[in-house]
Amino acid sequence: MRATHVITRLIVGGAQENTIASVQGLRLKPGLEVQLLSGPAIGREGSLVAAFDALPGVLTIVPKLVRPIHPWNDLLALRKLTFLFRDRRPDIVHTHSGKAGILGRLAASRAKVPLIIHTIHGPSFGRFQSAPANVLFRATERFAAKATHHFVVVADAMKKQYLEAGIGSPGQYTKIFSGFALEPFLAATNDPALRARFGLAADDIVIGKIARLFALKGHDDLFEIAPALVQSCPRIKFLLVGDGEWRARFENRARAQRLQEHFVFAGLVQPREVPPLVGIMDIVVHLSLREGLPRALPQALAAARPVVAYDCDGANEVCLENETGFLLRPGDLPGLRARLSQLAADSDLRERLGRRGRSFAQERFSDQRMVDDLHALYLRLTAAPAVQS
Question: What is the dihedral of CA 6, 216, 258, 337, to 10 degrees?
Answer without folding.
Answer: -120
